[in-house]
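Changelog-linked ticket: 3-isopropylmalic acid example.
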Amino acid sequence: SANYKVAVLPGDGIGPEVMAEALKVLDKVQSEFGFTLELSHFDVGGVAIDNHGSPLPAATLAGCEAADAVLFGSVGGPKWEHLAPNDQPERGALLPLRGHFKLFCNMRPARIYEGLEDFSPLRADISARGFDIVCMRELTGGIYFGQPKGREGEGAQEKAFDTEVYHRYEIERIARLGFEAAQGRRGIVTSVDKANVLQASILWREVVNEVAKDYPDVTLNHIYIDNATMQLIKDPSQFDVMLCSNLFGDIISDEMAMLTGSMGLLPSVSLNDQGFGLYEPAGGSAPDIAGKGIANPVAQILSAALMLRYSFKEEAAALAIERAISETLSEGYFSGDLYKADAKHPVQTTVQMGEHIANRI
Amino acid sequence: SANYKVAVLPGDGIGPEVMAEALKVLDKVQSEFGFTLELSHFDVGGVAIDNHGSPLPAATLAGCEAADAVLFGSVGGPKWEHLAPNDQPERGALLPLRGHFKLFCNMRPARIYEGLEDFSPLRADISARGFDIVCMRELTGGIYFGQPKGREGEGAQEKAFDTEVYHRYEIERIARLGFEAAQGRRGIVTSVDKANVLQASILWREVVNEVAKDYPDVTLNHIYIDNATMQLIKDPSQFDVMLCSNLFGDIISDEMAMLTGSMGLLPSVSLNDQGFGLYEPAGGSAPDIAGKGIANPVAQILSAALMLRYSFKEEAAALAIERAISETLSEGYFSGDLYKADAKHPVQTTVQMGEHIANRI
Ligand SMILES: CC(C)[C@H](C(=O)O)[C@@H](O)C(=O)O
Ligand SMILES: CC(C)[C@H](C(=O)O)[C@@H](O)C(=O)O
């Protein structure tokens, strides 16, 4: 039977707590669906700085290289905020991992779950319409990695600079994935750019228009980033797939996550062209609630389901996890972040949420 | 008595209609407050393309140079959208004007007016808390104007690039204005950057921290752009002055404008270090309602008030206009964009709104 190697990187804050529940659920599916998961644990982020002096130690990187996929928790916290930007857990772990494994394709789904509309910070009539969007973000190009990047000069004339750069092939491959995602959804791609100011956006728009010709069944719209942040708030239900550069995807994906009001439910996928991927919750390490056993593990468990789907092609197992999560939520079991006074059951702990889901596999 | 020269650039769409009302109000204050305004009208934007072949004709630029301030309407519309980005009204008029007159300081206030909370797209409990924010945006630097900017190569390797660059002096002067604005307000500056990724942001943060030492009465916070778009939605009332680079200010100012739900009330100011300024409404040319006489002229009239305040130091006249606007709104006179079923008066036209305000000077 199939055997998959997973590098497990729980990280900081609530990472280890929610990761434990994801592993519990994965353990359940591997016996049910007849495959085996070979897990290796590695330090990453702040805990790796503390234990090994680096947010991404060589052993962790080697462990990821030896694996078929990376299940990532979250990194960062106040303890490491005094460090120089390059040494901080988020930047020092995530960016090198993305670059090293060429994880150019980042998918961040965000939707309002039925019954959870009240948690959205949007006006009731807007959140009642709901929304279901995937942000398809280019993750290894643009201003994040573009060269030159640096600082020079002195005194008042001292300057610091970064380069926003996109190559045709980079735009083309992420655009294709955007159109393919739209084909399996509602058939709309909205490409986000700033083509009225940026040369990189002008090329972006051109290439996206060319790629669109191969997907006549998909509707393509273009929108400027400033207008996109407005339209998302005014009527998020108009969007299906939002196709974004690295920087604009960073902004748009966070905005749409906040608009759901239930960030604890949002997973994210970063893939390379070999199907190797890194899977992580959208929410962050939440140091304020870490160690209390109250964090919502659903985003981490959903991330594990997406790993089964995208890296291992174990669709049935992925669906089983997603169904178990839907059942748990629709039966009224919620962790504190999504708890309402009129809920059927008392507030559930992280462990209880994990057990409800594992038991429903 | 003082005489001020104003270049009036109504532009496209609703621009000419709302400009007519601003001029009506300015005419009223000049007699009341004992100064004279010498107005010269010039084409800009799409209408200038149609009449003179360029969105910013030489005569318009010369007219602005001969003036003490520019009162700008709005530019753009579907008629000119097929043009190359560089030739389009928005880009072809606004960016050269900003660059030519070195209008590095852009202030965009956004607030929820009492009684208009329902128009905000935010959940009722969030909009009920209200907010009152000024986006202090650097307007002549960053990735908008940074060099090199271009395109090279062929085939799959063809690339397009832009340069995000900030000099210490550019950051320092806009930061000072941000801190000064906060001193006259609630004393909080939130500086928006992406210092976990961008070198330009690392310098930005350093310089802002240094400038902050001269303003010990102001609280300084730093926030990443992605988190800023989230926090604005979650709780806009936490912000006072948001200090932004050119690109991040473009995004943040539009997001906050949308969050008010009353974009027709928002003016904007772009200044150079001589006090020369360009004053324009935040909303855009709104081609869908142009020519119908229904657009809200308040943002244009407020822009005129800010011109009196910032470029001409006619504080009393500026206050008189602002008071007349407040009275008009609080007496229940609204154009269609802000009309509610339970309003005291029927929907007011653009001209009626202008008259209410002029009559209350
Ligand atoms: C931590 C940071 C470098 C990262 C990014 O900007 O990509 C984060 O915000 C994200 O979206 O994953
Ligand atoms: C039209 C465009 C170039 C401009 C900008 O990006 O600055 C506009 O969005 C604005 O905010 O004034």
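Closing comment: Example verified and attached. Chain B has twelve helices and twelve strands. Chain B touches chain A through 61 residues (CB under 8 Å).
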